[in-house]
């Protein structure tokens, strides 16, 4: 019999979830978002800390282009779990607009809203054009983060006060897959989340830099911030370990088709043939931080991962395309409430 969450030992560190609102083969967007809602409802009854939604654009397999809308919807269907962005791609937006959006959410759902921030576009170059932005917007990311902090603290910036937003002090998290995010999070005394679920190459260096260079920031109560490191991991868990590993193989094939299609319709057979070639090696590296197997095996792998990285929290990204395995992964890894 599968082990229930109620009888499972508490993980070494808190677990959270990253939901990309993936749109499975043959699914509509509405069906995919319904799955996300059911996952959020389940997670709310367990010990998961938070669920984050990532901003992606122009991607046919991902339905999380508007994280604030998803957060609002999921918050209305849950009562405990924290919800937020993992993240908002800040160069796509004005800091004032984001302060107002997440400030509104914080007023509606007090002490439940997070705001993770990234500096990537969350899509291809066409995305910047469609959003009326330019790649140069990424250069303003540090200043935009500071501007956001000021709005949430209640300050007037450029002659404008964020209403809603002022005084909500929505907690900010810096996201990254390189050393830049680690440096910024350390300099501002903010929590840092590393995207090792798809880009683990700089994981060790980024963690070391963040821990070494962290400078505490002043809190409103007179205290100081402390470093908080979140590390992401891809997860697939099933009672049948072979089935879980086949789901990972299928995910790699989909990733090869997405990354190396080059304007033509690469067949599944063609993508599978690349698994042992350079493209496959690239995808294997992207998914290096994947915990796959039975529930017990995955929990043991995650425990080792937390120990190796010194993470304060793991954020898990379920990857299975089979919805039964996808839901089952979240259930099997759920910490006790």
From TrEMBL:
Residues 15-312 form the Luciferase-like domain. The keyword Oxidoreductase applies. Keywords: Monooxygenase, Oxidoreductase. GO terms for molecular function: monooxygenase activity; oxidoreductase activity, acting on paired donors, with incorporation or reduction of molecular oxygen. It comes from the Bacteria. GO terms for cellular component: cytosol. To bacterial alkanal monooxygenase alpha and beta chains. PANTHER family: LUCIFERASE-LIKE MONOOXYGENASE. NCBIfam families: oxido_grp_1 (TIGR03558). This is Alkane 1-monooxygenase. The lineage of its organism: Bacteria, Bacillati, Actinomycetota, Actinomycetes, Mycobacteriales.
């Amino acid at each position: 019999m599968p082990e229930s969450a109620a009888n499972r030992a508490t993980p070494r560190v808190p677990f959270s979830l990253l939901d990309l609102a993936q749109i499975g083969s043959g699914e509509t967007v509405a069906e995919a978002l319904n799955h996300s809602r059911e996952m959020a409802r389940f997670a709310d009854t367990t010990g998961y800390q938070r669920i984050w939604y990532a901003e992606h654009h122009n991607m046919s397999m991902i339905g999380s282009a508007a994280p604030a809308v998803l957060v609002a919807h999921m918050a209305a269907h849950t009562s405990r779990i924290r919800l937020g962005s993992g993240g908002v791609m800040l160069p796509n937006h004005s800091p004032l607009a984001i302060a107002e959006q997440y400030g509104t959410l914080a007023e509606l759902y007090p002490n439940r809203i997070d705001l993770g921030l990234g500096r990537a576009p969350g899509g291809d170059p066409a995305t910047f054009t469609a959003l009326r932005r330019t790649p140069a917007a990424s250069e303003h990311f540090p200043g935009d983060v500071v501007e956001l902090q000021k709005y949430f603290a209640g300050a007037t910036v450029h002659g404008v006060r964020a209403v809603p937003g002022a005084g909500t002090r929505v907690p900010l998290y810096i996201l990254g897959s390189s050393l830049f995010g680690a440096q910024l999070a350390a300099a501002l005394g903010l929590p840092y989340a590393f995207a090792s679920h798809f880009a683990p190459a700089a994981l060790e260096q980024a963690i070391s830099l963040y821990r070494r260079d962290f400078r505490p920031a002043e809190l409103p109560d007179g205290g100081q911030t402390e470093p908080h490191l979140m590390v992401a991991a891809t997860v697939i868990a099933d009672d049948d370990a072979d089935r879980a590993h086949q789901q990972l193989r299928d995910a790699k094939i989909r990733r090869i088709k997405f990354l190396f299609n080059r304007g033509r319709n690469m067949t599944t057979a063609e993508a599978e043939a690349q698994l042992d070639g350079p493209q496959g090696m690239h995808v294997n590296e992207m998914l290096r931080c994947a915990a796959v197997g039975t529930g017990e095996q995955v929990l043991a792998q995650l425990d080792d991962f937390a120990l190796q990285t010194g993470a304060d929290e793991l954020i898990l990204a379920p990857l299975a395309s089979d919805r039964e395995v996808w839901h089952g992964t979240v259930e099997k890894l759920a910490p006790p409430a």
